[in-house]
Amino acid sequence: MIPPAPEALRGLRVLELGQLLAGPFAGFLLAGFGAEVIKVEPPGIGDAIRKWRKLDEDGTSLWWRSLARGKRSITCDLRQEAGRELLRRLIADGVDVVIENFRPGRMEAWGLGYEDLRAIDPRIIMVRISGYGQTGPYRQRPGFANVAEAFGGLRYVSGFPERPPVRTGVSIGDSLAGLHAAFATLAAVHERDVGGSGEGQEIDVALYESVLSIMESLIPEYDRLGHVRERTGSALPGIVPSNTYACRDGRFVVIGANSDGLFRKLMHTIERPELADDPRLARNDGRSAHAEELDAAIEAWTSAHDQPEVLRALADADVPSGPINSAAELFADPHVRERGMLEPLAMPDGSTLTVPRIVPLLSRTPARSHFAGPELGAHNEEVYGRLGLDAEALARLRTEGVI
Within 10 Å of residue 75's Cβ, how many Cβ atoms? Predict the structure, then answer.
């Protein structure tokens, strides 16, 4: 048997200081592709996500077990100078990347700002995640994902026009910031190690900017045309037909038949050939002008059939469509299972927890889930042992509340 290739980020060492989601999501991605991610948590309580959402029988969040998989957990009270000194020693021992998402200025107040860390090791890459960034008039404002999604424009366009804005159902602002942070980290590592500078740098990730950056043509449409994009529910204005439609069994389908050829296929599938041949509807601009008429025709057909029948007919016609899946439906879906997206993860008690596989898929050096999110401080001895701290020293630090 050919042994598996080394993981893509093997040899990259990361200190993750951030809590909750944005920083930890970046660390999750890096750990999944082989980086050694050492999560630094406050003694006693650890990362707040350990107690968020649904808890397992042992009182630990199932979200934590998934999000912190493959990370090493150490405890360190950065409010104490002894804790900050431990962090400096870890960096001096060889760390490539530090991820933090404290409020701007906090790390500097602790003597752990970028210039402080750079003085220890000029190769250090410091990833800083905050609500509004490290500069600007709002830099000191607290910023969680919900605020960033609102400030960055996403909430304004989410929902139905006659109702208040809604959230997406997950903390998408945090995850977007984590994705940007992970991408920027690898760009900085490449520049340092492959580009040849040998120098680290400071990475400034703002949650609101991570949201704003994915807002499509929102800004240029306003700049050039004065157009303010509004909430449109499940429809996609200007790209027709593309909407959500109810079926007879109370379930829904999403259909995107917005090219000229796909539109004709859809009209024949729903037995409305006269619409397929209607010159008013031959191009997207004409269809956009008659969006309500087309949506009514499509839903008249979907509402006369159960969802499986609708999806079969659309698949046979090669019209892009799909169900709106719940967790239960994802769990049962054969394609999701065939792709290996439901990964069994061994739990500390020997049971198995199903989690989403880490993506995207690399053909030769895929991501791996080595172990579930660990117990608080599970790797204190392993990590601090590298610094020469023996059992007696660790016991003293525990007594002092440093670890």
Answer: 25
Q: Which pair of structure tokens corresponds to residue 136?
A: 């600007």
On whether the CB atoms of residues 399 and 77 are closer than 8 A, the answer is no
User: Domain range for residue 297?
Assistant: 242-246+252-323
**Candidate list 47, 77, 174, 295, residue with the active-site label:** 174
Question: Strand, coil or helix: what is 120?
Answer: helix
- Are 40 and 158 found together in one domain? yes
Residues of the chain with pLDDT under 70: 1-4
Phi first, then psi, for residue 97 (nearest 5°) are: -140, 140
Is 204 a known active-site residue? no
Could you tell me the sign of the dihedral formed by the alpha carbons of 380, 383, 387, 391, in that order?
A: positive
Residue 199 maps to a domain: yes
Specify the pLDDT at position 100. Answer: 97
State pTM to two decimals.
0.93
Burial 249-278 (b: 16+ CB within 10 A, else e): eebbbebbbbeeebbbbbbebbebeebbeb
**Distance (Å, rounded) from C-alpha 24 to C-alpha 18?**
6
Alpha-carbon span 143 to 174, nearest angstrom: 10
What 8-state DSSP symbol labels residue 156? Answer: G
